[in-house]
Design a protein that fits this description.
Helix content is 70%, strand content 0%. It has 216 residues and is an all-alpha fold.
């Protein structure tokens, strides 16, 4: 499905090491059956979100608490923390929420152990298929917003083709597993990169606190 010599992003490799996973864990997910693929991918992304929150709070004593918090709950889950802390954009949070919905469908019914993503996608109506394509394309949908803004002239022709909604729908329909995997690839890179943004937020907060103290 992907070339053997395809090199996974360094950030993802480092994340897998932190989580005590083999270097080829994420890449090998494409070789899993669809049921295992969804469940293992969800577990990886949940662990990555836990790692991001642990990095941001920098409180080791919270690990057991944060790790037990549900991932996709919009009110009290890890995603609600990530949203309020501004650690992931809307499109990336939408990916995680959508994956959580698929994971719940699979894990709560053992009969789904033989389910095929292609069968499920082929049964989707046009609107549902479009939503599936968009929800699992966080990188492309983020670029679409730029393309529709005054910065659209900065996006070249090949990228325009990549983010075209019809191309996303075709990719999602023809190979839904790869479509989900590719979205996860961009999501995981973003989660790793957000640790740098987390440092910026903490430094900015420290500066504000120092300024308030000096004003007093």
């Amino acid at each position: 499905m992907i070339p053997d010599d395809f090199e996974i992003d360094k950030g993802i490799l480092e994340l897998q090491g932190k989580l005590s996973l083999p270097n080829n864990f994420f890449k090998k997910l494409l070789e899993e059956d669809d049921w295992s693929f969804i469940i293992k991918l969800h577990a990886l992304i949940e662990a990555a979100c836990t790692d991001l929150l642990m990095f941001h709070f920098d409180e080791p004593g919270l690990k057991n608490i944060i790790s037990r918090i549900e991932l996709g709950n919009k009110s009290v889950g890890k995603l609600s923390f990530i949203k309020e802390l501004d650690l992931l954009g809307e499109n990336y949070r939408k990916y995680i929420f959508s994956l959580s919905e698929w994971r719940n469908k699979f894990v709560h019914n053992v009969q789904n152990c033989n389910a095929l993503l292609t069968d499920a996608v082929n049964l989707m109506e046009k609107g549902a298929l479009k939503k599936f394509a968009i929800d699992f394309s966080p990188y492309e949908t983020t670029l679409q917003k730029f393309n529709n803004s005054k910065l659209g002239n900065l996006i070249d022709g090949s990228t325009n083709k990549q983010i075209d909604i019809n191309n996303l729908i075709e990719r999602a329909k023809s190979n839904p597993k790869f479509h989900i995997w590719l979205g996860a690839y961009n999501l995981l890179i973003t989660i790793v990169d957000m640790q740098g943004y987390s440092n910026y937020l903490k430094r900015r907060k420290a500066v504000i606190l120092l300024k308030d103290d000096s004003d007093d």
